[in-house]
Design goal:
With about 475 residues, the chain is α/β, with parallel strands linked by helices. The protein has 19 helices and 13 strands. InterPro entries: DUF7810.
Length: about 475
């Protein structure tokens, strides 16, 4: 299991990723804030923007909102705005954002400065498209290139799926732009690491988080990272399956010396048990935040504890620890292994692997052999992959009737770019997703094939839904009554 998903042995995800890296570089060179803010009024007032706005709920879900905006800005040739709340970026205590992005505050200032509404007749407004509202979203049926609104906000994209819906958009220009950035959905063997490349361009750790990462690494990056999503549970099967998966990673990566394995988990109580298993054959690295707090002389300021309703997402450690863990894990040189009590390949794990691969791709020796593996213990495979529900989980597209039941522990090669459709071999939808796609106007077969004629007919029968908000009051010409 997994070879088909990750495209083992065929194509070159690294080559595709480096192509996308160059696309992103050129995009920010032309549409980045450093250039656009210097444009003369007649050019600036014609400019288009995409807003990425996130809260501070689960890190993976919220980061995908920002990355979706980054992807859409590339596809539509618009500049990127990263939304702030009361003057603060999302997770701004722990993450630094690219200086090639704008804030809404700066856009408002420049819009007034250049008299865009009065002189050029362009009011500053936002057109909002909410992905989580199937009857109203225009993600499949509209050519967003034709939208004239200064700012577009594609809201509700909490995973890798939302922006990839554009791969099935009925307008050739939209589909072509999405395919250039994400690859073809049925070409799993050579799809780029798009979200990793976007992260590489858009975010970096804050100086204090980077200092904590350096403290933990002590100058040597891990060969392999194990991420365990335990949610306060300590199942023995999950632990043993993960150890087997690390050993497989060592074989794939052909590491002959004693490997250095970094361990990341949302459940500190399970760490000692996992460490004891791994330490039999590897040097184990784990960020001990309590020791760091006592001995480093550094202080990381921010929310000390997650919100109560998010404690299962963040775990029992202070919130900032998850960011140190994230950027530490993204230093993996050869492989990321993700395991879990229940759902494997969460958005957090996906982004760790994506950023780690982006950090390696393009280096010498080649990063082509970077490996992402999912450790799926046997209890999760009694009914195939049917437990992997939820679009944010990487194996959801394999959870349907084609997934094999009652398999032993699996260590599955995993794509760096999570699939959003069911075009690959062995992919099949669960009934809930078949029903959900119908709400978007997409008729799926039991094997996940899209009825293209039905989608075109659906799009012809509907009108664009327009939801628009004014950022600045619309200009009223005093000469008109």
């Amino acid at each position: 299991m997994g070879e088909e998903a990750a495209g083992a042995g065929r194509g070159s995800p690294e080559r595709a990723s480096l192509r996308v890296r160059e696309m992103i570089r050129r995009h920010f060179e032309l549409q980045g804030a450093e250039r656009v803010r210097m444009l003369p009024a007649n050019e600036f007032c014609k400019q288009g923007f995409v807003l990425g706005k996130a809260s501070e709920a689960g890190f993976g879900n919220e980061m995908y909102k920002i990355l979706t905006a980054g992807a859409l800005s590339v596809m539509l040739n618009r500049s990127l705005i990263i939304g702030q709340t009361r003057g603060l970026y999302p997770f701004g205590e722990y993450i630094s954002y690219t200086n090639q992005s704008f804030t809404i505050h700066e856009i408002k200032h420049l819009w007034r400065k250049h008299h865009c509404a009065r002189t050029y007749g362009r009011d500053l407004n936002i057109r909002v498209d909410i992905f989580e509202n199937p009857p109203e979203t225009n993600v499949l049926c509209s050519d967003w290139n034709s939208w004239k609104d200064p700012i577009i906000w594609f809201d509700g994209t909490t995973d890798a799926v939302g922006i990839q819906f554009v791969l099935k958009n009925v307008h050739p220009r939209m589909k072509a732009a999405a395919s250039a950035l994400f690859g073809l959905p049925d070409s799993l063997d050579a799809r780029p690491n798009t979200f990793g490349e976007l992260m590489r361009a858009i975010i970096s750790p804050s100086s204090t988080v980077q200092a904590a990462v350096n403290w933990a690494l002590k100058g040597v990056n891990p060969d392999i990272v194990l991420h365990m999503r335990m949610m306060a549970n300590r199942p023995v099967r999950a632990r043993k399956a993960a150890v087997l998966c690390i050993k497989r990673a060592l074989q794939i990566c052909n590491i002959k010396r004693t490997p250095r394995v970094a361990l990341v988990s949302d459940t500190p109580g399970s760490v000692k048990e996992i460490m004891s298993d791994i330490s039999e054959f590897a040097e184990v690295l784990y960020f001990d935040y309590k020791l760091f707090t006592k001995t480093s002389g550094l202080e990381i300021v921010g929310n000390d504890k997650p919100l109560d309703f998010r404690s299962r997402d963040w775990g029992s450690a202070p919130r900032w620890v998850a960011f140190v863990d994230f950027f530490l894990a993204a230093q993996a040189k050869y492989a990321v292994v993700t395991g879990a009590h229940r759902r494997v390949g969460t958005t957090y794990a996906q982004l760790i692997a994506a950023l780690a691969a982006a950090n390696i791709h393009g280096q010498e020796p080649s990063g082509a052999n970077f490996t992402f593996l999912s450790s799926i213990h046997s209890n999760l495979l009694v009914d195939g992959l049917s437990t992997q529900v939820g679009w944010g989980h990487i194996w959801n597209r394999y959870a349907g009737p084609l997934s094999c039941q009652r398999q032993p522990h699996q260590c599955a090669l995993t794509p760096l770019l999570p699939p959003a459709w069911w075009d690959g071999q062995w992919q099949s939808p669960i009934p809930r997703d078949v029903r959900r796609l119908l709400e978007y106007g997409v008729r799926l077969s039991n094997m996940g094939e899209v009825d293209e004629k039905h989608l075109v007919s659906h799009c012809r029968s509907r009108k664009d839904h327009v939801k628009r908000y004014h950022v600045l009051p619309p200009y009223k010409n005093p000469g008109r009554t």
